[in-house]
């Protein structure tokens, strides 16, 4: 498989406006840009420190040429290869893939590369990173057609040993699972702590806004403390409709109050389709305090 074939396969599954823009975003992510969608807006990418020499600037000719549409296609240049190897940033490439590949397109992406659709997203995205790295290290514009499928099988059979790392300090700032992802609580009703009598049943909702660059697809709010509170929900998992950047979504719950007096709380947090916290920094952690007792109103 040549690089142009590889890029064309990927391009079909990414929601990017054109080939030149796609090269800007994926190569800047490959080389360390944590927010490639915003960073690659026309007025910003000309002097991006993350883009290899030959791919930055306002002229998209060299970027589009990587798709093999002209007889001037030669694959990656030596400076581009050297830049990719030097940066070696799999985390930002995987985060970019997580933020942009939809739930519907992921099985298609797997099929394109001969991978089973039940493989975890992060493993497939790691395979994509490794194939880019292989193109950078290879003296020829050629990588095995089954590189990603072989890589995934190898990882499942013989996972890479991860060396023990120094624990992250408790006060260290956390970042979203997907680069550029962000959310904001807009409103809720009721907008104050609830006071409820035993066995009451009531409703509550929040409206949150997707104010980042990632599409929320396949996400849900999980009842994080369901095992430690006497408050019960009709559903412990509340699915979130597909929400583009700028969109808003309502999270509604029905609460069943049990016969245990005191101050209790419901905690919800957002997870992706693989059950991973989208915001480890708890920026969209939704909390509902409920005081339970005989003298409280229903």
Write structural notes for this entry:
The protein has 298 residues and is α+β, with helices and mostly antiparallel strands. The protein contains 9 helices and 9 strands. The chain has helices spanning 3-11, 19-30, 36-39, 61-65, 78-87, 90-100, 105-112, 121-137, 147-157; strands at residues 183-189, 194-196, 201-210, 220-223, 232-233, 237-239, 248-256, 262-271, 286-292. The strands form 2 sheets. The chain has a 5-stranded mixed β-sheet with strand order 2-9-8-4-6, with no helix packed on it. Helix 5 crosses helix 8 (121-137) and helix 6 (90-100) packs across helix 8. The longest helix is centred in the middle third of the chain and has 17 residues, at 121-137. The N and C termini lie far apart (66 Å).
Which band does the percent of strand residues land in?
Answer: 15-25%
Helix vs. strand class: alpha+beta
Q: How many strands?
A: 9
Ranges with pLDDT <50 over ≥5 residues?
Answer: 161-168
The helical percent reads 25-40%
Biggest beta sheet attributes:
5 strands, mixed
